[in-house]
């Protein structure tokens, strides 16, 4: 047992998980690239908080490093990099949508319901009382779907990165909820992966902008022939 | 592009081919030691958790093929020392030497592999190195097309081989060839037949049997001639090796009768159609390529007859037929290697492969002509050279099969014998054309006029192969006594009790009266030539010489263009087999002022390939049409690809719930 009572920790995890889901949905509802990045930073911060609560409540100290890495890399470093990219390419609004915002939000609601039912069926197959943290499984699946949905419906390359990062946050969260986080080496590997991916994608966005004078990935279609 | 006559390039060439020569000789020694001692070479290479112990395992069968490959490789390495000089100025030698070595190593690996994974690996290495070698003249669109066709066909073959090994794995639970050998005969009949069909198609594509041959006449001419010699001489034989390995070593000896019949049908089709198509070719290397198809057919007649006799329980005849087939493998490697090297020399000396543009080369290139003639006589199956011996053995094995009272045999054997005889005759006709038009007469073009003889290394190499053609023809006992234990290890019958090997000279199956003594035949042939000459001299006195103008239908001036052409020479055969060729010709005459004064006459002749039109084109069209349909979902939008993933994910989640 930690310093705080376990049920309190369960409650806090639920609150933070809900907040994470809200940030993901807010990204879908927004148009501003800067806002995307800030929402993502906030989301990562909440994620770090959930990881810290897992450390406190269940004594899984190996997540401590992962929690700090989450906050340092995802909540601080990556948003800074992405903000700089935006400043350099002078693009602020996502204006091209395959599906408009209202319909997107409705579909997101559908995805949340689907994820919840999937998570319930997974958890009900487990024996014994599930710990509070496993309840966030539904949130994590929903985040993966929403992240993919963002990548699918938005056309700016930068939004694609945000979608990818949202999916990655979902993967981290599902790891936390099912096994109290993956082994540290895996987590560190994923962090490194994400770091590099974002740096490279940042460069790509810049280059795409320079070559095609837009960062809409529609232009990549010209490469087909 | 390299500097002209870069010394490093030259050194790489010399060093590279010298090393290839030395390692090929080492291969010959290894092969001989296994053949003589009978002890298989077994080396464990790698322990793996998934596939078990990966090992090299070379028994007599491997050793025989290894010896054939190594001998030809050694000779071709000598040839390449001179031949590759022409690439010095425009090509990077490191690339050629690297591919050459990888090619030789992979062929040796294929016949020595004792494990599925190793086998498939070296098999693919062999396919890829030959792909790059065919594409060596990559500026030429025809080379690129040939290489592409080759790589597509060979991968279709590999797919069938993978399926075959999968079936073997499912039933034996092991990937090693030894396990296949011990468990193969006990497999269920359906599985055995599936394996047989996969092996026939998979190895058949590599061997170039009709109807899987379409890559072969394109690929052989495109590659440099030293490589063509190796490809035609030994690479396609790895397909034969695979078939013998699977049919006799893995699956035998209890086999259904239809296997042998099927192989015989393929063999007869390949040999007759191969030689018929060869007759219509005027490109020297394409002509030789079609002859490779023909000879693969002759080899397969031996293999097919061995399967047929083995399924009927007559192991002795099966052994004779198998020996005949394997003997022809060796012989074909020798004379086809020789002929391709000769074609390479002609190409080297004249820059032309079209025999209609050649002629009169016997005066400019006497050595090449002489050795080419030996190769031509050998491939035509005339005594006393080696081609005759193996074809005769095949005849003998088939004719002895007359005594078997089985309806299928009673039909199959006479048909095969008749068509083999036809093949031999047509091959002789074809080489009369090839040799006569290329080397005799007057030069038909400037290329031929200014031909020059090849370098000493190239001539030496051809001489070595010509010598081998003579030795294997005059002393068949050498080869048969080496092949006999090999056949007995596969079929369990030893011939030495039933076939006398009198002093390594005679092949006499004692049960019947048919026998053959090549040296005696040689003497007889010489006598046929010498006796009339001598008789004529004795009776008629001294030979009188009369120098006169050739009869020229009253024309005043006779030019090289009035000589008999290759097209004209093959016309009678084109008429007889017009159903197969479906030839169409176009004559275009351009007139000036009066029909009696014609500016030019163009004659164009086209023959059509039945297989391309009725087998490959429908399949090709179907693939293109279905690819177009699939292409509609390939929009090029990143978003739509993501949408596919998303939809799949959601559906999976819905179903997995």
Q: Alpha-carbon distance between the termini of chain B?
A: 63 Å
Gap from first CA to last CA of chain A: 62 Å
Helix content of chain B: 55-70%
Number of helices of chain A: 7
Q: What class would the helix/strand composition of chain A place it in?
A: mainly alpha
Rg of chain A (C-alpha, Å): 18 Å
Low-confidence runs of chain A? none
Q: Beta-strand level of the residues of chain A, as a percent range?
A: under 5%
What is the strand tally of chain B?
A: 6
Given the structure, what is the number of helices of chain B? 25
Number of domains of chain A: 1
Q: Which strands sit side by side, in order, in the main sheet of chain B?
A: 1-2
Helix content of chain A: over 70%
Q: Mind telling me the C-alpha Rg of chain B?
A: 27 Å
Measured by DSSP, the beta-strand proportion of chain B falls in 5-15%
**Quick one: how many beta strands of chain A?**
0
- Globally, the shape of chain A reads globular
N to C succession of SSEs of chain A: HHHHHHH
- Identify the most extensive interface between protein chains: A-B, 22 and 15 residues
Tell me about the biggest sheet of chain A? none
Describe this structure in words.
The complex is a heterodimer of chains A (225) and B (657). The mean pLDDT of chain A is 82. The longest helix of chain A is centred in the C-terminal third of the chain and has 29 residues, at 184-212. Helix content of chain A is 76%, strand content 0%. Chain A is mainly α. Chain A has one domain (6-94, 101-219). Chain A has 7 helices and no strands. Chain A has helices at 6-29, 33-58, 63-89, 101-124, 137-153, 157-179, 184-212. With 657 residues, chain B is mainly alpha-helical. Among the domains of chain B are: 253-497, no CATH class; 567-606, no CATH class; 613-656, no CATH class. Chain B has helices at 7-37, 60-83, 93-112, 116-134, 141-172, 177-183, 189-207, 216-222, 225-235, 237-251, 257-280, 284-311, 315-350, 361-364, 366-379, 386-400, 407-439, 446-449, 456-474, 476-491, 518-540, 566-576, 578-581, 610-631, 638-656, and strands at residues 41-48, 52-58, 499-500, 508-509, 584-592, 594-606. Chain B has a two-stranded antiparallel ribbon. In chain B, strands 3-4 form a two-stranded antiparallel ribbon. The longest helix of chain B has 36 residues, at 315-350. The A-B interface holds A 98, 111, 114-115, 117-118, 121, 141, 145, 148-149, 151-153, 155, 160, 217-218, 220-221, 223-224 and B 635-639, 642-643, 645-646, 649-650, 653-654, 656-657.
